[in-house]
Amino acid sequence: MSLRLFRRLVFVLGLVAPVLAAIPSDARSLTEDEASSLDSAATSYLRAVRRGDAERIVAALPPRVLTVFGAASGIEAKKLTKTLVEQTSALMDATTFTNVATSGEIPQAGDAVLEDGTAVVWAILKTSFVTETSGKSTQNWQPLLALNEGGEWYFLRVEGPQSKQLAAIAYPFLNDIDFPSAASAPIN
Predict the structure, then answer these.
(1) pLDDT value, residue 17
(2) Of the residues 63, 75, 97, 186, which has the fewest C-beta atoms closer than 10 A?
(3) What pLDDT does 12 receive?
């Protein structure tokens, strides 16, 4: 085995272990309908990322998270959405996304009921993509939280303790989930 192949194997194993640790003991398989609707929604979302469609990317954020973020920042909902679209658009203009995909694995699901009685199904998707900014390419592996609320799938990147804490205000069950870390590597 070549040293390069061995290093990649060690890197991939380092990515898999945290994902397995993130699956709660009460996880279940998605139903056929849930898996189908999640696949369709995730495909649409990742297409929006690949195309740099800021409006669709922001539209895929969970409304509860937007409400919490708006309240925390003191910005009314329409202005917050407009600001997020503008910021996302600027990011997308500066960065090219290619090879945007999920792992193709059907993720394990979890169920939660919010304080207001709303049922939520959640899953963590493994995504990968290549970004190019200022002529430099990077391979990225990132977990993506999928939340089904009211029959609609929404997507949220939880990047560390601060964003998890903010998201958990809207979805308290997130406090009990260990999210796998994101990883990236420069492409030579």
Answers:
(1) 35
(2) 186
(3) 38
Distance of alpha carbon 35 from alpha carbon 18, whole angstroms: 23
For the residues 68-74, what does the mean pLDDT come to?
87
What's the domain count of the chain?
1
119-133 and 108-113 strand pairing:
antiparallel
Domain coverage including residue 61: 3-186
* C-alpha to C-alpha distance for 84 and 54, rounded to whole angstroms: 8
Paired tokens of 163: 């964003």
- pTM for the model stands at 0.82
Amino acid at residue number 89: S
Closest CA to 117 of 94, 86, 150, 144: 150
Q: What is the largest CA-CA distance in the chain?
A: 57
Q: What are phi and psi of 37, to 5 degrees?
A: -70, -35
